[in-house]
Amino acid sequence: MNRKKYTIFDIVLLLVMIGVVILTLYPFLNILAISLNNAIDTARGGIHIWPRDFTFANYIEIFGSNDRLLQAFLMSILRTVVGTITGIIASTMLAYTLTRRDFVFNRQVGFILVLTMFISGGLIPDYMLIRELGLINNFMVYILPLLITAFNVIIIRSFMDNIPIALMESAKMDGANDFTIFWKIVIPLSLPVIATIALFLAVSQWNMWFDTYLYARANENLTTLQFELMKILDNANISSGDITQGNAEIVAGQTSPQSIKMAITIIATVPILLVYPFLQKYFVTGLTLGAVKS
Amino acid sequence: MSKQIHLGEGEPVVPAGGAPIGLDKKPNRKLKKKSFWKRVKSQKALILMALPFVIWLLVFKYIPIAGWVMAFQNYKPQNGFFNQEWVFLDHFKELFHEPMFYRALENTLGMGILGIVFGTLSAITFALLLNEMRFVWFKKMTQTISYLPHFVSWVIVANIVTTMLSQEGPINTLLMGMGIIDNPIGFMSNPDMFWGIVTVSDVWKETGWNAIIYFAAMAGVDPQLYEAAKVDGASRWRQMWHITLPSIRPVIIVLLILNIGNLINIGFEKQMLLGNNIVADKALVIDLYALNYGIGMFRYSFGTAIGIFKSVVSIVLILIANGFAKRVGEGRVF
């Protein structure tokens, strides 16, 4: 391309894109400002991207005096960590057996996996299974049903396919067994794709609320941040702002549901914000590759 | 190794004729052939590595499919698996006589179609604009920011949307400040606006993410084409229209087919989180309907029948879309 000469076209484009950026970021900034604003003052409305009456009270409320929300926060972290680690172990192992074309059951295992991308039992049969397995109100309901996603395994397998087979063969010559090859050669060489899938798994674990709603509602110890937020939202929807039983306990002292709601939203957003920009390079290629394969 | 998976420089994103689904065989990766049992014996470690997950797949993915028989019974959990009353197609007959079901179907297809149309248009437009950006630093930043909403949950997005659209929220404040309206609009309590709100929220959340694949495809367009067009005096608009868009047509078609196949699988998250009693009529989608009847009212068999109906429609839709693409001679999925 020739040296940059910016035209009207470039300037208009820039302005449009600035508009897109504002449209994307404004809601987050607005919520951040409300979460940092004095709760009573918030009710007056009119807060944009800067708090009017600055305070950390809403956050202190969540982490300090509200056991339920602190517990929910810790549970969200726990399920994210455990779910991501188990998910990575499961999908990389399965992907490795699929990348080994000499594996006796390669095609059968591949078929069983890929078919799940096209048909699924549906909501009710899934629910009945979880019930029969005794996973209702059990922490494992956050981990077991989400262990493997065919799409993720296929992305990992496509990546592993590019590892030179000579590496594995020479290791075999040196007497390494298949598991050693997986652990010592394949895993270290697959770190970029593992980072991508770990991000996908962590985000979906962190964001999940529906399994709590459906399977773990009755066990208060298993509540998560997203579920608590969903409950507040639900109450607000039903009674359009009235304080109902569900969130009455959260409304203690001078904080209003609105500010607490926004503070929870920010707490639920920040971890994602801290992680995804650094993995961008990986998930962009991972996603394009996965889309090509499927 | 990473250069092989890196798309965008010169490689077409989808091979002509569409990528085959499933596991392609690469003969060069085969090790020496041995007899079956010898291979089983020497591959104990591999078998042990796959086995737990094959069992997992059978339990968590295939048992629910086997659970479809529930739709043909009057399933009662206390009776065990072999003592159920068979009613064959009764639940389906009942379903097709239920006005609520048609409302759910209408809402699902309505929001599904709006989602595909505006989701695809916004993603392609965004990718096109991004592709034309010359300020490299700003381009990268825009791209990163555009992914953010994809990574936050629908709970958060619903929270954001209700805040933005509330009576004293920014949208109403802005509209009143500009003198367009005198009284705040009750967006969330107007049933006629519900489909639109869901669609706009979806576009806000997913445009940046959905644009990734189009953007990658655009990066793979042969630069010589643009050079040639420039020589012919084509403006940037004409280059976008006559080179960039036609070049990514196979990608657009493949994604459209996949989306049409999923038309009925729009889920229920948005509708459940954004909906309320006032707009319930417009928010009831098939999955919510199955959830309310199947689990809420313990009508497991009826709920399963709804699920089967959904799967059948989904398969029919993808076959139709695929056949259509085949007809017009474009990249297809199968």
**Helix-strand sequence of chain A:** HHHHHHHHHHHHHH
Q: Describe the main β-sheet of chain B briefly.
A: 2 strands, antiparallel
The CATH topology label of chain B is MetI-like fold
The biggest beta sheet of chain A reads: none
Please identify the structural class of chain A as seen in this structure. mainly alpha
Low-confidence stretches of chain B: 1-25
In CATH, the topology of chain A is named MetI-like fold
CATH architecture of chain B: Orthogonal Bundle
Oligomer: heterodimer
From the N-terminal CA to the C-terminal CA of chain B, the straight-line distance is 28 Å
Strand segment count of chain A: 0
Q: Any idea what the CATH superfamily of chain A is called?
A: MetI-like
Average pLDDT score of chain B: 86
Mean pLDDT of chain A: 86
Keywords (chain B): Membrane, Transmembrane, Transmembrane helix, Transport
Subcellular location (chain B): Cell membrane; Membrane
Domain ABC transmembrane type-1 (chain B): 105-321
Main location (chain B): membrane
Outline of this structure?
The complex is a heterodimer of chains A (294) and B (334). By secondary structure, chain A is mainly α.
Describe this structure in words.
The complex is a heterodimer of chains A (294) and B (334). With 294 residues, chain A is mainly alpha-helical. Chain A has one domain (62-293): MetI-like (MetI-like fold). In chain A, 70% of the residues lie in helices and 0% in strands. Chain A is built from 14 helices and no strands. Chain A has helices spanning 8-35, 39-42, 57-65, 67-99, 106-115, 123-132, 150-160, 165-173, 178-189, 191-207, 210-215, 225-239, 245-248, 257-293. In chain A, α1 (8-35) crosses α14 (257-293) and α10 (191-207) runs antiparallel to α14 (257-293). Chain A is globular and about 75 Å long. Chain A starts with 7 loop residues before the first helix and ends with a helix. With 334 residues, chain B is mainly alpha-helical. Chain B has one domain (93-327): MetI-like fold, CATH 1.10.3720. Chain B is 66% helix and 1% strand. Chain B has 16 helices and two strands. In chain B, strands 1-2 form a two-stranded antiparallel ribbon. In chain B, α5 runs parallel beside α9, α6 (136-151) packs across α9 (194-219) and α15 packs antiparallel against α16 (300-327). Residues 1-25 of chain B have low confidence and may be disordered. At the A-B interface, α1, α4, α5, α6 and α9 of A face α1, α2, α3, α5 and α6 of B.
